[in-house]
Amino acid sequence: MDFQIRQAITANVMGSDAAEFQDIVNDAIARGEEHLLPGLGVFLETWWKSANENERNEFTKKLAQQFVN
């Protein structure tokens, strides 16, 4: 992903509150459009960088459960 995309997405959501982020994520999932995936990736990357090891472990456990055969 190009760094300019990260900057643009970050600039577009700067100052948003939790409800707005929830709306953004719900809308992106409901639409199912591939061009929205980079935005969700930027959200995940930003969260991951600030999460502690326990939060990361809990997240990856839950994520792995979603992809069990």
TrEMBL record:
Main location: other
Domain of life: Bacteria
KW Transcription (keyword) present: no
Alphabetized UniProt keyword annotations: Sporulation
UniProt induction comment: Expressed only in the forespore compartment of sporulating cells.
Subcellular location as annotated: Spore core
TM segment ranges: none
Stated family: Belongs to the SspI family.
NCBIfam families cross-referenced by the UniProt entry: SASP_sspI
Protein name according to UniProt: Small, acid-soluble spore protein I
Species per Swiss-Prot/TrEMBL record: Solibacillus faecavium
